[in-house]
Amino acid sequence: MQIPHGKKVYFSSDNHLGAPTPAESLPREKKFVRWLDMVKEDAAAIFLLGDLFDFWFEYKTVVPKGFVRVLGKLAELSDRGIPIYFFVGNHDLWMRDYFEKELNIPTFREPKEFIFNDKVFLIGHGDGKGPGDKGYKRMKKVFTNPVFNWLFRWFHPELGMRLAQYLSVKNKLISGDEDKKFLGEENEWLAQYAKRKLETKHYDYFIFGHRHLPMEIRISEKATYINLGDWISHYTYGEFDGTSLQLKEFTE
Sign (positive/negative) of CA torsion 30, 19, 164, 123? Predict the structure, then answer.
């Protein structure tokens, strides 16, 4: 994709809408909608890198209640012809085809390569990548197993959603302190993952979410790893103007 003059590509991740309660989440949802209103004026594309919701499970004919403001705004932007891409995070693993059919937003489950103005990007949510965290990787295999999905769908949505939302809010990714700490460049596992990817192919930018901590790490002379932070504490996003990418904070 060639970015037209005056246009930009935007990246956002980890809103966790609905947590810890719908009432407490609502101001953050409204703030994110205001950000979408801002970027729509010059957006060549918008990338949402997962965990937009703190929990999302689509039954065959049922989608979770709530989030009408952000879903309506995404529909508006998509209808205006702004390309939007969604990467499934660990809190919205159980997304089916609602975004694709209702909002015309392609959905990806693994990191994907994009090229903008000859700059090569590898983009994804980031969960389960890099060394370590074997417990989560095993858990993810269970949660994405078709048998597990089939069994969960037998729960009445009222019971299944209540149980899953309770467990999701208790998840350390939304409630813990350890994700707020910078581990050092040598210990940031997504940076290590990016370095390994460079052994087989050149990328200019690796863009991920999941860590909830905005960071920019130069991992080689020509490659940079960027974590987008979140919309819980930092309200940060990425902005690529066709030449370089910057991390910015949305302030009003």
Answer: positive
